Amino acid sequence: MTGKLAEGQILCDETGTKVAKVMELIGPIKRPFASATPLTNNIKKYIGKSVFTFDHSPANTQKFRRRRK
């Protein structure tokens, strides 16, 4: 892993598809491992592939809703 990774962040693949959510960081501080829960049913396709983090978690952002007239 490179850069900062925090618990609760969403991991995505090259196309931006949400793959997993980081649940906890374990291991040494210099080279931690991330334990993640999959967000897709076909997780075997992502084994050994690179995943990336969003700058902000889309799960924490508020959705825009239009008011009814």
UniProtKB/TrEMBL annotation:
<dbReference type="InterPro" id="IPR009000">
    <property type="entry name" value="Transl_B-barrel_sf"/>
</dbReference>
<dbReference type="InterPro" id="IPR038664">
    <property type="entry name" value="Gar1/Naf1_Cbf5-bd_sf"/>
</dbReference>
<protein>
    <recommendedName>
        <fullName>H/ACA RNA-protein complex component Gar1</fullName>
    </recommendedName>
</protein>
